[in-house]
Amino acid sequence: MKHFISSFFALAIAIGISSCGINDHDHDHDQDHDYATTVIVTLINQSNTADTIKAVWKDLDGPGGAAPSIIDTISLKSDITYVGSIELYNESKSPKTDITQEIKADDYEHQFFFTPSTGIASLVEWTITDKDRNNLPVGLTFQVKTKTGAGNKGAVNIVLSHYDSMTKNGTSKSLESDIDIDYPVIIGN
């Protein structure tokens, strides 16, 4: 009988603890999306649509494993405006998952931040052109404007903030990021 009471008490505690667990996900879907193993940035020259740049970043084993296997350099011309988009996929499984669609569906929980490094920050401007249902920036589409400069090298840091535990305000990064990657950038080649 003593064993039964101890077992019952342990079970009651386990149920109590699990039912009082902290849930910091303030959303109405059952699970978060996959991690991105592949990111594709596409930039189309507004003056010449044949001038299209596709830059791939690929890390098939995901966060914490080997270094990315592909990191393309984004080569931008001076004094040009590009229309841009970004796509994310999880290619570590078959079939691959289109994370871009998941971000579109939950756009109010996501925002991209594009931060050029010091070497190119004065020569390039990234402006987000899409908005979520609350009229806040998302960043799946954007515009990139370059200024005059030749052979300037740097990087753009791209962060996808995921707003689970804090409210998205359109200007501040969240405590959690789904991606945080750097693309090498050359301006004026």
Your description of this structure?
This protein is mainly beta and 189 residues long. The chain has a single domain, classed as Coagulation Factor XIII, Chain A, domain 1. It has two helices and eleven strands. The strands form two sheets. Strands 1, 2, 3, 5, 6, 8 and 9 form a seven-stranded antiparallel sheet that branches. A four-stranded mixed sheet has the order 4-11-10-7, with no helix packed on it. The longest helix has 18 residues. It is globular and about 40 Å long. The N and C termini lie far apart (82 Å).
Tell me the domain tally. Answer: 1
Order of helices and strands: HEEEEEEHEEEEE
The secondary structure category is mainly beta
Shape: globular
- Rg computed from alpha carbons, rounded to a whole number of angstroms: 21 Å
Which CATH class? Mainly Beta
Low-confidence stretches: 1-31
CATH architectural label: Distorted Sandwich
Secondary structure: helix percent: 10-25%
Let me know the number of strands: 11
Biggest pleated sheet: 7 strands, antiparallel
Into which percentage range does the β-strand content fall?
35-45%
Taking the alpha carbons of the first and last residues, their distance comes to: 82 Å
**What would the average pLDDT be, to the nearest integer?**
84
Number of helices: 2
Would you give the CATH topology? Coagulation Factor XIII, Chain A, domain 1
Quaternary structure type? single chain
